[in-house]
């Protein structure tokens, strides 16, 4: 299982946003939608062994489960619609119990710290950092959990939590990439490593 946590610092925590302005009027929700699409889509298929956790405003986490996903299309607007539908169910998410909004999509009342703890139980937490080891020199973990931020940097508290939880610190290349591009490169690294074993 490959997992990605993406922090949406300015992302909406209510469904009161327009699908026609997800870049300007919805806290750069477009960035999170691109991350979801990069995590799941192949040319003519969906990666079923992937789970994505979108942490919205450190209040809610919307989880996408690849093995159960339906109605995910490769455009930002339809992904934003799935997130909005999840937010419409937020009152049904009690404690850390999820509320499913559509097949493979659910919402939980969990911020970053709890989401990280929950996702890391059966995973190797990989911190993407410009001072990390080159990813090509690191043996890929069997169940990696990559943690990324939206267009904002991690806060000091988030960075500290991530450093404490990390099992590996790697850099994907010589340049700092957008979050969705980082997901694509991480997939390629894992795919290539797996392919070379056969």
What features would you describe in this structure?
The protein has 198 residues and is α/β, with parallel strands linked by helices. Helices cover 31% and strands 25% of the residues. It is built from 5 helices and 8 strands. The protein has an 8-stranded mixed beta sheet, with helices on both faces. Helix 1 (29-40) packs parallel to helix 5 and helix 3 (112-119) runs parallel beside helix 4. The radius of gyration is 16 Å and the shape is globular. The model has no long low-confidence stretch (mean pLDDT 93).
Give the SSE order as H and E letters: EHEEHEEHEEHEH
Number of helices: 5
Q: Got a strand count?
A: 8
What about the largest sheet? 8 strands, mixed
Low-confidence stretches: none
């Amino acid at each position: 299982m490959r997992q990605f946590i993406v922090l949406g610092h300015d992302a909406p925590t209510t469904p009161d946003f327009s699908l026609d302005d997800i870049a300007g009027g919805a806290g750069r929700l477009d960035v999170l939608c691109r991350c979801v699409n990069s995590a799941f889509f192949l040319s003519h298929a969906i990666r079923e062994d992937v789970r994505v956790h979108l942490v919205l405003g450190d209040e809610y986490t919307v989880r996408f489960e690849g093995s159960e996903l339906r109605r995910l299309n490769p455009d930002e607007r339809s992904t934003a619609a799935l997130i909005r539908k999840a937010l419409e169910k937020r009152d049904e998410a009690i404690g850390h119990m999820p509320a499913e909004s559509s097949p493979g999509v659910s919402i939980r009342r969990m911020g970053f710290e709890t989401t990280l703890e929950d996702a890391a139980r059966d995973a190797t937490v990989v911190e993407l950092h410009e001072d990390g080891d080159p990813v090509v020199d690191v043996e890929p973990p069997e169940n990696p959990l990559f943690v990324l931020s939206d267009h904002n940097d991690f806060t000091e508290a988030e960075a500290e939590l991530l450093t404490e939880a990390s099992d590996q610190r790697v850099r994907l290349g010589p340049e700092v990439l957008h979050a969705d591009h980082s997901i694509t490169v991480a997939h390629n690294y894992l795919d290539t490593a797996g392919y070379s074993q056969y």
